[in-house]
Amino acid sequence: MAGTLTLNFSDDGFATIQMVNGENRFQTPVIDEWNRTLDSVLQNQSVRGLLITGSGKFFSNGIDLQWLGQQQAEATGQFMSKLQDLMRRILVFPVPTAALINGHAFGGGAFLALACDFRIMRPDRGWLNWPETAIGLRFGEPLLQLARTKIPAGKVQREALLFAKRLSGPEAKDLDLVDHVVEDSKMADVAKEMINKCLGKNGLGRDIVRVMKKDIYGKELDLSKL
Amino acid sequence: MDFVGLSVRLTDEDVAVVTMCNGDNTFTLDYVRTWNQALDFIDTHPKIVGIITTGEGRSFSTGLDVDWLKAQTAQALDEYHEALHKLYKRILAIGITTVAAVNGHAIAEGAFIALVHDFRLMREDRGWVQWPEVHMKLPFTKTMVDIFKLKVPCVISQREALVFGKRLDAKRGVALGIIDRAVPAPSLMSEALVTLQKARGNMKLDRHFFGVMKEDLYTNYIRRESSAAKL
């Protein structure tokens, strides 16, 4: 579905995927576009890091519930399955990933940010939020497993997941859900600096990065088939 | 509503205040049953939007009644532990926001009761939280360990509290992430209420659904172990 994502490569070895479709909500064709875009990222051998961002007021507001409500049962199941697979694909992506949370990241959008290695938020705009409790929606075991890989038990799961707290940048940082809180214009530079620190002088092989992510994040969810 | 050694009062804001009022509020099989009666009562009141559990006097609960323990057969103790685990999980997954207002000592079972609430506030000046099982040569069941780890993921806290059974005052309890907040004794109940209100925010929490969310996060993640440790 053209017009939902843009992809840019910069000379310093970074790929940036930007979501440019309003609230950047997920539907099946959007997920297909995501997968094609990620394929393009990987085909470029000079890419050593991936930045993911939204535009305007929204990083991503998550699943397009209105669209989902209009689908037949089988299409619904297929969509959820594809969404979970996309999240896992990003979770174990073979280069370091950073979510530049330029605006609201709700539900599926929050999971997208969570699946990245690093998260940066703004001090002044946008909430990180899992609204499921507030809207009467269970997570489902696959997404809950994803949540557990990055959201520790106890207070953080209670605030973020059980009580659906809307977290500003500073609040998310307090809970260690994001790494940095910086203004919009500095996000990309900060992300690149964090990723370059990981890569060091010699870089990191794509295969080993993927294997490491599978091993470390694979305690909570079964990544063996990836 | 009065039960044997425990009362439940409903406030104007539809909060159920559960007060353990049986001396040091020690646990026996009967006290587990009393607790279930209180929860049954709360179950039949759909308007209740919060639970605050506290104790009367110097103790929240000092845990197992040792005299009662000594008089039990191994089979009776297995029955007790089975019932106790069920109670922990029942409170853990109740579809209502819960706050433990720890007014004094919370030891062993008392500490677990506090732990299975959503939030723990403690008076800052008196009382300690402790799991003394190592000193009594009483191993934890897998269920107990899983509950602790679900609420307190910090490994250092697990070491201090469970492995070495340290006595933790409110300040230490907060530092270890076991207690959410230490407050002056006179504000314990009012702060518990504020905590409840802040947690719920504007959400309309359907009791059944909220219980399911807690099950997804908590009780479905806990290993089963029905038999008690050998004493």
UniProtKB/TrEMBL annotation, chain A:
Catalytic activity line of the entry: a (3Z)-enoyl-CoA = a 4-saturated (2E)-enoyl-CoA; a (3E)-enoyl-CoA = a 4-saturated (2E)-enoyl-CoA
Family annotation (Gene3D superfamilies): 2-enoyl-CoA Hydratase, Chain A, domain 1
Stored CDD domains: crotonase-like
Cell membrane keyword on record: no
Coiled coil: none
A single GO cellular-component term on record: peroxisome
Keywords: Lipid metabolism, Membrane, Transmembrane, Transmembrane helix
GO molecular function annotations of the record: delta(3)-delta(2)-enoyl-CoA isomerase activity
Transmembrane segments: 90-115
Gene Ontology biological-process entries: fatty acid beta-oxidation
Name of the protein in question: Enoyl-CoA hydratase
From TrEMBL, chain B:
Gene3D superfamilies on file: 2-enoyl-CoA Hydratase, Chain A, domain 1
A biological-process GO annotation: fatty acid beta-oxidation
GO cellular component, one term: peroxisome
Domain of life: Eukaryota
InterPro entries for this protein: ClpP/crotonase-like_dom_sf, Enoyl-CoA_hydra/iso
Any one GO molecular-function label of the UniProt entry: delta(3)-delta(2)-enoyl-CoA isomerase activity
Name of the protein this chain belongs to: Enoyl-CoA hydratase/isomerase family protein
Organism in which the protein naturally occurs: Dreissena polymorpha (Zebra mussel)
Lineage: Eukaryota, Metazoa, Spiralia, Lophotrochozoa, Mollusca
